[in-house]
Design brief:
The chain has helices at 4-10, 36-48, 81-88, 90-113, 138-146, 157-164, 183-196, 241-244, 261-267, 319-329, 378-390, 418-438, 445-451, and strands at residues 24-32, 54-57, 73-74, 124-128, 153-155, 171-175, 179-180, 200-202, 207-211, 215-218, 223-231, 248-256, 274-276, 283-287, 293-297, 340-348, 355-358, 365-369. It is globular and about 60 Å long. With 464 residues, the protein is α/β, with parallel strands linked by helices. Helix 2 packs across helix 11 (378-390), helix 3 (81-88) crosses helix 4 and helix 12 (418-438) crosses helix 13 (445-451). The strands form three sheets. Strands 1, 2, 8, 9, 10, 11, 17 and 18 form an eight-stranded mixed β-sheet that branches.
Length: 464
Amino acid sequence: MRSLWLDEALGAPGEDDAPPLLSQVAADVCIVGGGYTGLWTALRVKELEPSSEVVVVEADICGGGASGRNGGFVLSWWAKFGTLRKVAGTDEALRLARASADAVSAIGDFCDANGIAGYRRDGYMWAATNPSQVDAWRSTVEALDSIGERPFELWAPDAVAGRCGSSEHLAGAFEPNGAVVQPALLARGLRRVAIAAGIRVFERSPVTAFEPGPVVRTSAGGSVRASRVVLATNAWAVRLPEVRARILVVGSDIVATPPIPERLAGIGWTDGLAISDSRLLVHYHRTTDDGRIAFGKGGGALAFGGSVGARFEGASPRAAEVERHFRRLYPSLADVPIARSWTGPIDRSRTGLPFFGELRSHPGVLVGAGYSGNGVGPSYLGGRILASLALGRDDEWSGCALARIPGTRHDRFPPEPFRYAGGQVVLRAIRRKERLEDEGRTPDALTRRIVGLAPAGLVPVKGR
């Protein structure tokens, strides 16, 4: 079963599959993965070097992974500025945060230019949905204010509740630059534009091996010999040991109502506002063009080792739990049924920021991963970074602070089975803490201590 987004996108005319890779082909750049990162990279390579031969190889269909399942929040890195500054320094953090804000606009321009529906730029609300979350944004806002940046507006509680359609939203910081998109329409639109630009796209072609050359081999017997290979599979990159040490794969789950435009009008939520709260296992919600509410929650299944299997496919295994939280935040919609649910994996880095670079274990193979739940907007920048690296360019993207694979022990997750067992303990503590806080109770000291072990990358920030 596909996500609601993909079912809508695949129902449009002209959505036939691209062919599988069955033969031996050559390319300047071979991109493995037909989601946002892979397709933005392919288009950027063609923009920089129009004569280059670019091949995209996708195991499923373009948009079949996270790009067709996420919440569709198109956001900047301003909310992660504190971490960005620790990683990159103030000047580079400012440059990257500003570039990420520009990417929100650039994606909207791309949708307009190419007839891709579903993009709305009505802002993002970083909200509090219980008293413990109030002012969660203060340190970020104050840090930005101290250097003259004011991307957020602090709203009065009644204004937040009115804009979000529920008094359970107690406070918030509003970023006018935020947007939403129908994520699968964007992914399939990128595919269409890439094919029109002369990029060769092969679908239903799982990659089975990387060989020196580099050469990419697929399950159907095809292969690509390329000057550079870009691995843009996000959570599925965990199958490579060198990447596995640097990302933790965690499930995120979404439920969606039927179209209820009259009910949305009744509660005053009539635009494309993107909303997330400030808990670690984040709640994120938005409306759709046909008047549904899509409501998601992070912190689902944990992957063991390099296995991203059936638990991350199809209907959400915890739809009832996600629905329960939806009904707490929107009690006036208690009678509205849930029409659909789906799940998917998120690739979380220790910092909560993505990384890009060449694999030491596979010379000539580049990787981009670690978006940590905020990938729709930043993947546009990821495409620029990976394209510059693939073409050997010396520019502001190949030299940026994120163009390296983290190398210290502080950047890595523990090996298995300690990663999985420890992750389960931390997740249980986070769930207990957040349940108590929703009930107006104070978590015990042991629970708080265990929660403190969660890395920044475990926090499912705004997106899917």
